[in-house]
Amino acid sequence: MSKRILMVLTNHSELPNGKKTGVWLSEFGEAFLAFQKEGFDVTVASPKGGEIPIDPASLEGEVSEEMLATKKHIQNTEHIDHQNPQDFDGIFLPGGHGTMFDLPDNKKLQELIRSIYEADKPVAAVCHGPAGLVGVTLSNGDPLVKGKKVSAFTDAEENDTGLQDDMPFLLASKLEELGAHHEAAENWSEKVVRDGLLITGQNPQSTEVVAHAFIESLKE
């Protein structure tokens, strides 16, 4: 039976400074393509449903035709409120700066992640995707990330982007405040951390290794 994956993306399209943002295309596309190649059944959802904004910076430079073709899968996403955690074998959160604004406080996302995690199914997030983990508490009241080893977009990388003052918080620091043990590699280098069912990665360069670690966990 094919594994059923829920991918949750941001709908947030603009930073406080007016800069356009959204999902980082490769963080969706590389993971989606990896899941597709495994024959997984992927549902793409978002807090508001509908079309997902793409960070224009993620379309700069060399972007493959295969990657650009994944845009069609985010033109009409399902509404997150219509998703049932029992319908999925795992959940994956791609990043992009938009996630910092509409994922942290989304109650339905928190419920989905908690239910999937407590059903012994994997939860994965990459780059700014772990913003979707910061509001998640387990049934015992503890933050999901408390005591867990994680990786996410680092404060140093955020300073590199020059967008640190436009963020509601610095992601790596926030995760540490919640009791996580944040592990960082050099800026813009590949990093994946797996702690049981929780799989996280540092930046866009880490998407493929996070996706493959997630796939491995689904097969165990």
Jot down its keywords.
220 residues, globular, alpha/beta
| Beginning-to-end CA distance, first to last residue | 14 Å
The shape, in one word, is globular
Q: What is the string of SSEs from the N terminus onward? A: EHEHEEHHEEHHEEEH
Low-confidence runs (pLDDT<50, min 5 residues)? Answer: none
- What integer value in Å does the Rg equal? 16 Å
| Percent of residues in beta strands | 15-25%
Mean pLDDT: 98
Number of helices: 7
The strands making up the biggest β-sheet line up spatially as 3-2-1-4-5-9-8
Give a structural overview.
The radius of gyration is 16 Å and the shape is globular. A seven-stranded mixed sheet has the order 3-2-1-4-5-9-8, with helices on both faces. A two-stranded parallel ribbon has the order 6-7. With 220 residues, the protein is of the alpha/beta class. β8 (192-195) and β9 form a beta hairpin. It has helices at 25-37, 65-69, 99-102, 107-118, 155-161, 171-177, 207-219; strands spanning 4-8, 41-46, 78-79, 90-93, 123-126, 149-150, 181-182, 192-195, 198-201.
